[in-house]
Amino acid sequence: MADNAPINYQHFFQQLLEAALSPVLIVDRALSIRYYNQRAARLLTATASMPAVRLDHVVPDPAIVQLVRESIQTGSPRSGEVDRNSNGPTWRVCVTPLEHRTHTTSSGKRWNAVASHHYFLIAIEDLTELRRLERVRRDFIANISHELRTPLASVRLLAETLEEAIDTDPEKAQTFVEKIEVEVQYLTSLVSELLELSRIESGQVSMTIEPVQAEQLVRETMARMLPQAQSHRVILRTDIQQGTTLVAADSKQIARALVNLVHNAIKFTPSGGVIVIGTALQAEGDAQRFFVRDTGIGIRPEELPRIFERFYKADRARSKADFIGPGGGGSGLGLAIARHVIEAHGGRITAESTVGQGSTFTFTLPLAAHKF
């Protein structure tokens, strides 16, 4: 086609609308939709063609319509943020008048340009994900500040008391030294877990995926956690079915996930309770299931959806009083790390619980493609 060929401006204009990264609509003074792109149609879940349809018939929020009316009345741009509902999306809406020019001539030689605002462009930006990320950032800063403040305050107080007792009461001073060591150990563990979680989330942890027998993962976790279970007077058992099944896993990372689950179970299981570490082939036969089941105090239904979030702790007062660590609780990162490790393997982790009866954490791993 020659460079000077006539341009189909209608088609060209529609292509410009479709190239926009945001949902865009153009309305006239009567609020009738004249043009729009497909992003706008999807956002507004339009079931029919929108041209000539009134804006207030397809836009559910009156605040957006009001912004457009204000722009029509004043002839100037308007913008604002609109929260669809308390838990719904947040939109930033910008309304821009479009200058429309008509040309007239009275003598056939002289052109007069008359400008007026006949059309108004509405651009909608979905801020929902941005707001969610901002909340995550604020929650992270608040949580990490809280987690650091408590042990640091304890270390400071213990150090001051130690200074007073070091000459007058050596035995008491030794007790304070041991408590400081516990707090420092907690802080070290917290920093290590934060760094590990950061590396996992950013994909910087290299995993060696190889065929591993399911029972090997269970038995290694059993051997590692048995001393801690015994010290807390909790019975630790295994329930292994199809234990020779080979799963595709990084044994070190999966062992860490299992240890985190058993560690939590010990924390919330009273003395004399039972914890079972088990594995079995999924009913569909396409994955291997691992589980940690306890007879602990359970998790409230409203807390279950959040237990795999970073720093989330399901009622700190529920943990055993003799658990080693500040306040009898952990950092709130163990389950988040376990979730990321499992999902990085292509598996899925879930939790079920009944208050007063116990909890069961279950995750799946894909079967190995070949055998030893």
Description:
The chain has helices at residues 9-19, 38-43, 55-58, 62-74, 128-165, 170-201, 214-231, 251-267, 334-344, and strands at 24-28, 33-36, 78-83, 90-105, 111-126, 210-213, 235-240, 246-249, 274-281, 287-294, 349-354, 358-366. By secondary structure, the chain is of the alpha+beta class. It folds into three domains: 9-102 and 112-126, PAS domain (Beta-Lactamase); 129-205, Helix Hairpins (Orthogonal Bundle), CATH 1.10.287.130; 209-372, Histidine kinase-like ATPase, C-terminal domain (Heat Shock Protein 90, 2-Layer Sandwich). It has a five-stranded antiparallel beta sheet with strand order 2-1-5-4-3, with helices on both faces. A five-stranded mixed beta sheet has the order 7-9-10-12-11. It has a two-stranded antiparallel sheet with strand order 6-8. Helix 6 (170-201) packs parallel to helix 9. The longest helix is centred in the middle third of the chain and has 38 residues, at 128-165. The protein is elongated. Residues 316-328 have low confidence and may be disordered.
